[in-house]
Fold DUF1294 domain-containing protein.
Amino acid sequence: MDYLWIIVVVMSAIAFFTMRYDKNQARKGGQRVPENTLWLLALLGGGPGAYAGMQAFRHKTKHTQFRIGFLVLALLDLFLLVYLSN
């Protein structure tokens, strides 16, 4: 099950830095990361990183679907890791 931890850590890092990139692009008026991409990263194991990035960069925090959705996906990722590790 070590590979699951690796997947979650790597995908979370990608999601975290993607949130930072999108926030910077939003400030500069540059090309944004599609919301579907943010959701896909969170669904593929990056839930903890997406949620942490949202909080750290105050990005997408006014959108209820992101606040709740990323939190649920983060908790689900962590629950599955703990459950499958035992």
Remarks:
- The radius of gyration is 13 Å.
- The chain is about 85% helix and 0% strand.
- The chain has one domain: 1-83.
